[in-house]
Every structure is written in structure tokens, then in C-alpha cells.
Amino acid sequence: MTLSTADAPTAGRVVPKWTRRRTWTVRILGIAALVSIVCTVWLGLWITPPDKVQHQLVRLLYIHPPIAWVALYCAFGIAALASILWLWPRTRSPLWDRLAASAVEVGAVFTALTLVTGSIWGRPTWGVWWAWDARLTSTALLFVMLLGYLALRRVPSDADTRSRRCAVAALIAAVDVPIVHFSVDWWKTLHQGATVLNANLSPTVHGSMAWTLLLGFVAFTLVFAWMLAMRLRIETLEQALEGAELDEALHERWAEGDASVGASARRTEPAEAAP
Amino acid sequence: MWRDGALVAGKDLRIEARSRVVLNQVAPFGLVVLVLFAFALGPSPAPLTNAAPGLFWVSVLFATVLAVQRSVAVESSEARDGLRLSGLDPAGVFLGKTLAVAAELAALEVILAVGVVLFYGVVVHSLWALVAACVAGTLGLAAAGTLYGALAGGLRVRETLLPFLLLPVVAPVLVAGTRAWQSALGSGGGTGGSGDPWLRLLCVFAAVYLALGVVIFGPLQEAS
Fold this sequence. Notes:
The complex is a heterodimer of chains A (275) and B (224).
Chain A: H1 20-47, H2 64-87, H3 94-126, H4 134-154, H5 159-191, H6 196-201, H7 208-257, H8 263-273
Helix pairs in contact in A: 1-7, 2-3, 2-5, 2-7, 3-4, 3-5, 3-7, 4-5, 7-8
Chain B: H1 2-19, H2 21-40, H3 45-73, H4 77-85, H5 90-120, H6 127-152, H7 158-169, H8 171-185, H9 196-223
């Protein structure tokens, strides 16, 4: 669970290690996420009763809305907030950029899962894999926007330019989210009447089903938090490694330029440079 | 800000008047798209007449991508540095480039609208509503397009990245513009209803992206 940084080449800069406390916090978070997921699966598949209308299909209720909640609110909210904090000169810190990128990446996974689980639920209940419902459409658009952000992030450029570009892109997309929501909402209400989705959600959830659903929300939020922490750590290490590799390459070039240093000495250069 | 905007818009439109890239290449492209839609939807006029508002706005969206790419391309890397060093207000630069793109798009829309009337056989009920939707939609498209154009400006993958970033964000313009046009044309199987909410949505979209551009274009210019 903890990532060792001892073997990373650190010619020019030291990769900060996680403190003991932080390691344990993330470890406990991971264990809590695992336990709550196992409990959700157990309650969802064995303990709760099948639904009157939807029978066994109702068990998707315990994972689909929680995943959607994490994807649409947690991930996108954190990404937008972190981007604003990066753009604001007073609070600017590389951490916000890394946090936004990590949240978008984990968010994209959860948004894809939302679409997939929704589709699996939709096939037997509505008879189609995809319906042009307002929620489905806006989620799909959001997914494409997240992919756009990730594509922009993969374009090679120096760190500050990339952070600025990505923060602005996240902000432009975030402003669009309410507009997309309203437009497809009206579009749907004008285009088709009440959908099957509304009818499916209308039965009130109570008893063990309500508790399982609540546990599902907690479980997936914990999973998201753990994945975000791990992704953030990987992002930090990656950036530190990039810098270290650059330093290493520079050292090698310098060594090449030195006439007295032979080919064998060049190979040992990184080892000498490492602490 | 406004004076700088007028300067930049004048410059871009002068370049267009001399090179005629949008007029000679993007406008014919839009017409080609209209003809391709006609091929795709078959020779009978009914599907085309029903789908005319949507097809018009899809063509406008494609043309927007090209117009924005042209607007970015006229600022080569030296020109971009010159613009940055000129001391012009970034908000003014944004407004100027947006207005220039909007003016080019407006001319394109006139050509495309004539094409839709001629090829798809639609009857216009309310010209005022059509024009209002076009003006609001065009401003929104131009503002969002200019923002993304500046964002992708210095990148080598600009041509492929820009449509991918821009088109999902301007999807509300497609939805709202199509509905506003449906009510103005009286088509769409009687579901058009009043176009007013859609016109308002187009105005909100334009206002939001113009305001965002004015605020954010300064930091964005530093990144490209």
C-alpha cells in the first residue's frame, strides 16, 4: 500500500516520503473501504429482499446511485475547486494541480462505471441499452469532458503551462455543467414524457434496503477517497521521477563531455549520484 | 477594453477580408455538409424538413471549429508574442477575437440558412425568432470557441484536440438552438412549443462564456 521511494533515482531532488501518520491514515482508509464494500455486497446480495416490481434487479440500486454520486459530485466538485485554488494567485500550489488531475482521472473511472452499471440496469428494465434520458445524456457529456481534460493533460509541455492550461480547461467545463444539466432536462421534458427511470425510482426505499443503500454511499465514497489518495501519491512520485530523470540525463551528458571519463565511468554515473 | 477589442476585431476581419479563407473554404464546407445530410436522409423531403433545424446547427458547430482554428492560425507563435507584448488588455483581445469569429459565423449562418431553405424546403414562420436565436447562439459559440482556441493555441495537436474539447461544451447551444429554430419554423412534429426558454438559455450561455473569457483570458494568454 505504501510506495517505497528508496530505489527512485534522486540525482537532483529528494522525493518526499509519506510520514508514518499519513501512511497509516491511508492504510486505514483502504481497509475501511474494503470492509464497507464487502458489507455492501453481503447486504445487497443476500440480506435484502428482492423488489416487488424489479425483483432481483433492484440490487443494482446499492451500487449504481452511489457510484454516480461519487463521479458527479465528489470527483467533479474536487476537480473544479482545486482548479480554482490553483488559479487564485494567493492559494497557488502544485498540490492543487495534482489533486485536480487525480480527481478527474478517478472521476472518469467512476463516470464510466456509472454509464456501464446504468446500461446494465437499463437493458432488462427499459429493454434498451441506452435511452436518451436527461440524466444519461448529461452524464455522457460530462464523461466526454473529463476525457478531454485528460487528453489535454497528456500533451507534453512544461509543468507550469500544463497546470495553467488544465486549470482553465476544468473551469470552462465546470461552468458548462449546470447549463448542460438544464438544457438536456428541458430537452427531455419537451421531447418525451415521464420516463421509466422516474417510475423506477418512485417506490420508496425503506428498511434494510435503505440501510444498504446508505452503506453503499459510504463505501463508494471511501473507495473514492482511497483511490484519490493513492493516485495523488503516484502523481507526486511521477513528477519527482521526471525531474530526477532529467537531472540524471544531464549528469550523463556532462560525463560524456568530460574527455577523461570513459564509457564505463558513464554507466556508473547514476549510481554515484544516488544517495 | 472595448477600444482594444475593436482593434483586434478589426485586425482579424481585415486578415479575413484579404485572405478570404472563411468565405472561400469554410462556407463551401458548410454547404457540403448540408448536401451530405440530404444524401444520408434520403430523397424524400419529409425527414429533411423535420430535421432541418438540427442539421443547420450541426453544420454551424462544424463551421465554428474551422473558424476558430483559422482564428488561432492567424496568430502564429511570433504574432501571439506580439499580441501579448502589445500591452492590449487581455479582456479586450478576447472580446476582439470573439467578435471577429462571431461576425464570420454570422455571415456563414446567412449562407447556411439560405441553403436550408432552398435544399430542405422549410417555411419560415417567425424570422425575428430565427435571427435572435442565431445572434445569441453565435456569440456563445464564438466566446467558447475563442477560449478553447486560446487554450489549444500553442499545441502541436491543436487540430485534433480542439473539436474534442469544444464540441461537448457547446452541446447546449445545439440543443437550445435547434429547439428555438423548431418553434420559429413550426417544424419538429408539433413539439416545438414556445422558443422563448431556449432563447433565454442561449443568452445565458453567451453571457456566461463572455464573462468567463473576460476574467480568464489573461491567465490563459500566459499559458499558450
